[in-house]
Amino acid sequence: MTRKHRLLLFLIGAIGAGFVYCAGAGNMPPWTQYRGPYGDVIAGLAVFQRHATDTVNAITYDYRGFDTLGEEFMLFSAVTGVMLLLRPEKDEKDASAKEPRNPASFRDRAALSETVQVFTTAVFGLWVLFGIYIGTHGQLTPGGGFQGGVIIAAAPMLLYIAENTDAFRRIVSHPFVELLEGFGAAAYALIGLAALAVGVPFLTNILPLGTTGNVFSSGTIALISACVGIEVTAAFTLVIFEYLREILSREKNQED
Amino acid sequence: MMILGTGLLTLIAVSAFIIVRTDDVTNQLLGLGFYGLLFALMFFVFQAPDVALSQITVGAIALPLMIMLAITRMKHREAVNRAGKKRS
Asked: Band of the pLDDT at A18, cuts 50, 70, 90?
């Protein structure tokens, strides 16, 4: 197949795809116009039915909470897969057992700029606080467990950028983080099962709804959001840690 | 509003094309972070602040960082393989 033939084939395909695209785009709703009843119905009902002012979170953690449960376990199994793939082999494990006693062994070679260090260290506490704020106010304002969780998970990465791998490792390399991940995922399912135990369908909002606009309102929405936050924080931290450990152990093997 | 939205969408398309055409992987990753931020801005303009928040953290921080770590890992493996071949 020569270049000429390939170009001809591409042109035929491009014209065909362009035609189909234009035909499809012609039927699109007008700019920023929403058609379809579901969004309007939910937007009108969510505040009264669930006492949650952020409709998006009312939908994700309540109206379609079962889908979100599936998404959460998707993340859970993805992280488990990464951890399984990157698990230390036997001789590497022996080496990692000695690590805590000799923390200087992994000092990063490149010296960091002091400006980066000072500002990142200063921002660390605020960063975690902001993550907690976003995670716990999901039912009131845009945000929620997933967003807050990822923001908190970025905090150890900040520390890794500002200090060194050891500082990062001191925060993350505990079985506690793995436990947190399991706890977050399990708590979501357990909240759903609690509804079954009371005698209503899975993941029904059984807690008292509280006053609209309060942090402690909207029943299980806030609770599930917090659990998702814990799970996401632990999951992202674990993935980054596994990658870093893999790289570092290889670096060390090369030096030996 | 329409001009802002159209401009952003055009910018996203242009930056996506530039990222694809970039040869160096590190530059490509930096571009990817910028692309993630543009996406977050687009979600915000189209009135989806929830999605914008997660897009900022996932698209601009987590995704480039993970790809960066994966690439570093691959480079190490290549270096180790090369060293092993020389020795044997």
From this structure: very high
Contact: B80, A253; criterion CB under 8 Å: yes
- Indicate the domain borders of chain B: 2-87
Q: Report the distance separating Cα A93 and Cα A89, nearest Å.
A: 6
Q: Which residue has the tokens 């893999």?
A: A246
CA distance B43 to B50: 9
In a domain, A10, yes or no: no
Q: What is the pLDDT of residue A102?
A: 46
Taking alpha carbons only, the member of A166, A193, A23, A169 closest to residue A107 is A166
Which residue type, as a one-letter code, is found at position A134?
Answer: I
Q: How far apart are the first and last CA of chain A?
A: 51
- Measured between CA atoms, the residue of chain A closest to residue B70 is A243
- Lowest average pLDDT, out of A97-106, A185-194, B34-43, goes to A97-106
- If one counts every other C-beta atom within 10 angstroms of the C-beta of residue A252, the result is 15
- A64 found inside a domain: yes
Q: Which of A134, A153, A243 sits opposite B70 (nearest CB)?
A: A243
Question: With contact defined as beta carbons under 8 Å apart, do A72 and A231 qualify?
Answer: yes
Q: How many domains does chain A have?
A: 1
Residue A111 lies in a domain: yes
Q: Which domain holds residue A143?
A: 36-255
Residue A254 contacts residue B79 (beta carbons within 8 Å): yes
DSSP string covering A157-221, please? Answer: HHHHHHS-HHHHHHHH-SHHHHHHHHHHHHHHHHHHHHHHHHTS-TT---S----TTSSS-STHH
Is A29 contained in some domain?
A: no
Do residue B73 and residue A151 have CB atoms under 8 angstroms apart? Answer: no
Question: What ipTM, to 2 d.p.?
Answer: 0.74
